[in-house]
Amino acid sequence: MPSDWQPSCTMELLKLRARLLGQIREFFAGRNVLEVETPLLGHGMGTDPQLDFFTSQYDLPPKRQTLFLQTSPEFAMKRLLAAGSGSIFQICKAFRNGEAGRYHNPEFTLLEWYRIGFDLTRLMDEVEALFAVLMADLGLGPTERIGYRDAFFARTGLDPLAFDFASYSSYAEAEGLPEAADLCGNDPVLWLDFLFSHRVQPSLGDNVLTLIYDYPACQSSLARLNAENPLVTERVELFINGVELGNGYHELAEPAEQEQRFDRELALRRQRGLPVAGKDQRLLAALDSGLPDCSGIAIGLDRLLMLLSKSPAIDDVLAFPIGKA
């Protein structure tokens, strides 16, 4: 019989998780945001080339169907929004294949919420209010809000909105990252992700909540373009002590533009030899029927627990990480 049957985390951390979930539910109940549930297993899947997914075969006569474990509840929640749900939130499991490490487990817990009538600024205000409740015991400093372009340039001297292979590869070579050119090639999205994770992110959020906003348009398939600068999208990410905690958007509501972005991402997936799923037609139909103006965000609760408990790895805050599942 196996000897590793016991949970990885302590009973105290199980209680801390329960308290965290209770605080989240109380916060949104006080703001009249409806808690919902959506399927973890679905016919559709996101097309983001940066994410891999799990598939499952469903034997429903007269034919076998391929279903997908969701990397996020986003598409189903947007269908609820289009159906008239009003502002909603959800605490659920999500699944991403090929992700395991200090900050990753292939099965993880997400908090995701959408607010009708909120632009990105109001969404960031609400994020700050929620974190003031959840992180009160950490004594964080005042929240920072920094534009992506400013943060990237300050730490690399490179303009993320004007990609130039020679400049980027020279910088990477000088910084002791010679593998970057081979890994990223001439793809600006890969370069931005690589340099941001290696040279920008580690310095973000030194005992403060840092909100990085207005990401380059090439990096955000589900966010609307900034009305004043179409080179950037209305997207925000959250960081504390170099750890990414969340990703949010002023949501794209135009079905034709969304389908074009899906097509571009599917082409990239094929080009990179990645598994390909079809476009989620039910999401596109929901957008066509009319998605209300809204902003939404997803936050990884396991990483949040790591920070709250000062745990060094995600396995330490999970009852049964993938190695013990």
Overview of this protein structure:
The chain is of the alpha+beta class and about 325 residues long. The chain has a single domain (about 10-140, about 205-325), classed as BirA Bifunctional Protein, domain 2. Helices cover about 35% and strands about 25% of the residues. It contains 10 helices and 11 strands. It has helices spanning about 10-30, 75-80, 120-135, 150-155, 165-175, 180-185, 190-200, 255-270, 280-290, 300-310; strands at about 35, 40, 55-60, 65-70, 90-95, 105-115, 140-145, 210-215, 230-240, 245-250, 295-300. An 8-stranded mixed β-sheet has the order 1-5-6-11-10-9-8-7, sandwiched between helices. Strands 2-4-3 form a 3-stranded antiparallel β-sheet, with no helix packed on it. The longest helix has 19 residues, at about 10-30. The chain is globular.
In a nutshell, what does this entry contain?
The chain has ten helices and eleven strands. By secondary structure, the protein is an alpha+beta fold.
Mean pLDDT: 93
The amount of beta strand, in percent, is: 15-25%
Tell me the major beta sheet.
8 strands, mixed
The strands making up the biggest β-sheet line up spatially as: 1-5-6-11-10-9-8-7
CATH architecture: 2-Layer Sandwich
| Regions with little confidence, pLDDT below 50 for 5+ residues | none
CATH superfamily: Bira Bifunctional Protein, Domain 2
CATH fold-level name: BirA Bifunctional Protein, domain 2
H-E order: HEEEEHEEHEHHHHEEEHHEH
Number of domain modules: 1
**Count of DSSP helices?**
10
Q: What integer value in Å does the Rg equal?
A: 20 Å
| Alpha-carbon distance between the two ends | 15 Å
Structural class: alpha+beta
Secondary structure tally: strands: 11
State the helicity in percent bands.
Answer: 25-40%
| Approximate shape | globular
CATH class: Alpha Beta
